[in-house]
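@here heads up, posting the sequence + SMILES for the pyridoxal-5'-phosphate run so it's all in one place. Ping me if the SMILES looks off, I pulled it from an old spreadsheet.
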Amino acid sequence: MPSIPKNWTPDDSAELYGIRRWGNGYFDVDPDGALTVRVPFDGGDVRVALPAILDGLRRRGLRLPLLLRIENLLDAQIARLNKAFHQAIRERGYGGSYQGVFPIKVNQQRQVIEEITRFGTPWRHGLEAGSKAELAIAMASLPADGRLIVCNGYKDRTFIELGLEARRLGHNCVFVLETPGELDLILDCSDRLGVTPVLGIRAKLSTRVDGHWNLTSGERSIFGLSISQIVGVVDRLKQAGRLETLRLLHCHLGSQIPVLDQIGQAAQEACRFYRELRQEGAPMGMIDFGGGLAVDYLGDRSQNSQSRDYSLRQYADRLVATVQRQLADDDPPLIITESGRPTVAYYSLLLFDIFDVTRFEAEPDQLRPAADDPDELRRMHDLLAALDGEDPATAYRQIVELRDRLHQAFTRGELSLRRRARVQNLLLAAGHRLVARFGGMDRRPKELDRLRDELADICYGNLSVFQSLPDHWAIGQLFPVAPIHRLDERPDREAIIADITCDSDGRISHFIGDGATRSTLPVHALKTGEDYVLGVFLVGAYQETLGDLHNLFGDTDVASVRIDPDGGFQVTREDRGDRVEDILQLMQYRVEDLRDRLRRQAEQAVGEGRISLTDRQAILARFDRCLQETTYFCS
Ligand SMILES: *Cc1c(COP(=O)(O)O)cnc(C)c1O
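bot reply: prediction finished. Complex structure tokens:
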């Protein structure tokens, strides 16, 4: 619809892409139209433009697609989490304290664990381990300074022995029983090593919660002990004279719980378990509420499974208040949480470029009828004019019918390739005309939204959804997507993003909108000679190790930066992504063998006079160059 476009400002972009809604205060737009990262310092927030960071990284030889980690955001989230609990404890005058642990499975990368270990020191922020490998990381990374190592997951003898050795080293290591069978194994190992364990019980709560991962809650949850199993464990401990080892009650209802009331109800039920165990004579002293603190990916603070209806402060306050109400008259326990997702989500973002675009536009010079056109094609031309008339929706439907008939004619051999191309062109022209006519109207035909999606551009992005955003592919997780520059220009195209794999699932076609999700992303038209770079935000939790090698696209380049109080930044780490050779080796190919086989083919071709010796050298050199290159698109 022809309306006079008002001037577009960076604020309009911030609004359109929801940057201030999902950014948690960490992302914003500057007056030049660059997306900025905003880092809190004592002297005030510091903003750095993402294009400036990207430019600095490219000059160090890093390439897109690129996983960018901003260390300050990890630090800031750990600080916010701990401060929220300390504040709630202070305000309510709660007699106990709080200690957090980071569940390693949420992001196991060495650098993340090192940063949490380092930055968590003043808060005594510990680690949660769910496997032998994660326990090995935890005990070697943390100093034995009273921070917790909480061991969840199924534990075999080696796992248990290693955890007991951690205690001997002075680590505050707790075994949370996942199954009743673990108990005898732990008691046996403990006797043989002469180390007293500290035990926790993971209870199956009956409170059910909403969200993607709600199967972790309720009686049918695969994790934790049922009521009768808990009674059995208490009896067994009494019988063995080891009830004094039972110190912790644990629950974890699943990740990303959107509704605070449900968290509160579950916490209350957990407190009841805690109290009963005290009454049974166990010393207790720690209550662990697991993970579940959600990230507001949509930025709408709703009860949608990708959002949350509460703030961090409200979450901390609800848990502290519940424990205070239920348990403070006795010996107020240490409150523990295992927040992983909100701790790391903000800190990583994926940057990628668009290397091509397909548009679904009509060619104006292909809209003229020819004298010998078949009837259906001529009717299509006539109907195009009818789209401006009384009943455009009916005219459009007739056009689609004619299109179908003409396609059949093509299949029967009665329509030429060029005429069929004109049929398609007419349909596109009709679609755009219909969309333009109803565009901004509230009362528009239902099919129109679908039609608009069908006319959207396809931007080809230099990324693999399977490698870098596995949850988007697997469970429809939405991540915020936005261009990192040109935000002072009105984005006048709508697009979906296709990734670089040859899989039709390799796409991003659900985006975060204002209120509802949207099926296209507003983008700018590409400019020749200039990269167009998009960011996918909040990808720090769960994505890295769930990724796979679909079509053999491997790890992207990775860079970590630390932003300084003066607005500069240092690159603290840079890792080159996988080369083609690395991926082939992962798939059990021996690069030497491949090269040798190719050499023999080339030798044979030389022998038969099909190629020259110079050709042979060129072929082998190209093969080698390919093996050394990144798996992604190089422009
Ligand atoms: C995965 C997991 C967590 C992390 O939960 P988030 O909601 O992602 O923070 C915490 N505790 C346990 C036992 C887990 O399995």
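MO: The two ends are 37 Å apart (CA to CA).
MO: One more: The first strand starts at residue 27 and ends at 29.
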